[in-house]
Amino acid sequence: MERNFFKAESEKSIREFIESLRENAPKFNFIVRHVLNMNEEYKKNGVDVDEGFKLFQIILCNPERSYKTVKRNFETAAVLLPPKQFVVYDNKGVTVVNYLYFTKEFIAQALPNDEKLQNRLPNSCQRIIRLIEASI
């Protein structure tokens, strides 16, 4: 069984990695749609966050392809959108990227009648891995 968890480390700061990601994203047919500072998100919701806590959720998108896919079948949004997210955090001065990507088998289990998405989405996930690698 394929392990669908990608991890990478970088000497770049989180800020430098995100800048590089924004610069490289169009080369992989993506945009950086949102960068959520989870430190701020937790604090806004009343959580007492440790000093130095650095965790960011990054959401990518290929807006045109996403729209066409969702327009064809709204159920695909539940499978299409989650694998476009990953986290970046600081681990003792090292920037770490963790990404849970979707396999063809997983998509086939969720949407057995959508062969088009079963083939396309895993390819998009692999492009995201290459984008991360190019940005670290």
> Sheet bearing the most strands, described?
5 strands, antiparallel
Mean pLDDT: 94
Helix content: 40-55%
Low-confidence parts, pLDDT < 50 over ≥5 residues? none
Report a brief summary of the structure.
44% of the residues lie in helices and 25% in strands.
Overview of the molecule:
With 136 residues, this protein is an alpha+beta fold. It is 44% helix and 25% strand. It is built from 6 helices and 5 strands; from the N terminus they run E-H-E-H-E-H-H-E-E-H-H. A 5-stranded antiparallel sheet has the order 1-5-4-3-2. The longest helix has 21 residues, at 115-135. The radius of gyration is 16 Å and the shape is globular.
Keywords:
136 residues; 5-stranded antiparallel β-sheet; 5 strands
Q: What secondary-structure arrangement, pairings included, does this model have?
A:
Elements: E1 5-10, H1 14-24, E2 31-37, H2 38-44, E3 55-61, H3 63-72, H4 77-80, E4 85-91, E5 94-100, H5 104-110, H6 115-135
Antiparallel strand pairs: 1-5, 2-3, 3-4, 4-5
